[in-house]
Amino acid sequence: MDYTVRLVSPALLLVVLLTTGQQQGGTPTRECWMSCQRHVTDPALRARTCGSCLPGGRVDSWVQGLAGQRPIPRAPLVSAMKDPDWRVRWAAVRADARRQGVTDRRALADWVMEAPVSSNLTACLTAARAAAEAGASSAKFLRDAGPRGANAAARVWGRREAIREALELELYAEDLAVRGSALAHLAAFLSRKPARVLLDAMATRPESVDAVSASALKVVAGRSRSSVGRMLLDEAKPAEEARINRLFAVYSKELEGMQPELTVADPLQRRRAVESLRVYGPLAMRELERALGDSDRWVRRDAARALAEAEGVPLRTAAERRIESSDAMQARPWLEAMAREKGCAAFFLGTARDKALAASVRGAALAQLADCGEGARDRVSSVEPFLADEQPLLRAGAVRALSGLTTRQPGVSEATSRALGDGAPEVVSAALELLALQRQTSRGDEAALLLESDHVVVRTAAAEALEQIGRASHVKALAGCLREDAEAAVRVAAATALGRIGGAQAAAALSDAAARDPDSHVKHVSREALRRLGFGQ
């Protein structure tokens, strides 16, 4: 990298930097380059220093590059301490501290104290922002700055009105990142909540810039994993109702604009849309509630997590509330979300043992144990009582709980065999799902026999299992299902399985179904299966 910088002329390097910045969709590289050019005047020093700005660099990267040289040149640092960007100024202070062999905070305190009171705003503002970035008050930040630390902190606080005005002005900057940083720093400096700072600033600003104010609070909320709705509700005062409603109106309009993103076909896009709702918190309750019914489990899980955050309660508390009077479909997203939480095994087993809950919810809780990373070693013994429960839904849930285990684990094969012979179709279909998930190819014949079950759910599950564990010897039974079963769902599953197993007999059965089946969906699936086997266009 250094070798390239020495060979490329400054003008050509600037073109490269500008082009790269545009291609990457950002400006830090250009800002860094321009800052370096502004403060480093010696051509040879520029060649050694400004290359630090190349792609990926921050606006102050060149200062860090300068600080790595020996000796560290002082003139560019003195110039950089007047830069309009506080990050460059603070980087220059740190580099000068290294040059002097003192701490960063000592150098900062010296700068504040040595600047004339009439013109020390730049130094005081830099100190206030550096302290806020570190998550401390300016007094605490400068406490360890040596003998001048206390006096420097007093000077910074003495300029608080000027600092407040400067940072409030940045709340309305064109750059969104600048706005968010200014709000966070002003809140930290004044020891106030960001929403309080923003509401106070809005008192002297017209409604025409409300969208700018609202965006700054969103940035801060996103960085702190909070939400604008929660921040504003926590700071709400009756006298400020009008200002809060102005912000709510901005956020409501944004939420309306996001509606299409929540209904697109791509589940990854819907998941990103749900993630973007988190920053709105309670204001997005309606959208998040709707997302709980999404067809994709990851979208449902994320929506449940976001709703718990919006309510300001732990996920477990929200889940317990929601499943108390729910059926399995309503409880599903909350159970799915809990599968990745610490204590998930105890939560699911406790839910399954709660006889006040619906059997469907208890069974669904057992099934979610398969996605819980806790208690796998004792899983069989934990669910053993439910495998013999009088409620079929609990027996089925207990069988599904075993899908996260291997067939080598003691008790799994025995439990699967009992479930395949159970009198309840829910339990048998759960056992067939288990065969498929665990790829128990040695039990394909058992699945094929169940293609003749009296129950549609069992026949469908058997055909779906054979898609995973079926062999050529099972094609005849599947072809018979595709040709003769009265239920379209069973014929669809059989066609899919035949498309995976393949062979001449499978192709013949699929070709016949594609031409003659009375159900359009069966015809479509049969044609797709034929294409996978290399037949048709």
TrEMBL record:
UniProt xrefs under InterPro entries: ARM-like, ARM-type_fold, PBS_lyase_HEAT
Gene3D superfamilies linked: Leucine-rich Repeat Variant
GO molecular function, one term: oxidoreductase activity
Domain of life: Bacteria
Pfam families (alphabetical): HEAT_2
Signal peptide: none
Database matches in PANTHER family: DEOXYHYPUSINE HYDROXYLASE, PBS LYASE HEAT-LIKE PROTEIN
Descriptive protein name: HEAT repeat-containing protein
Species for this entry: Myxococcus virescens
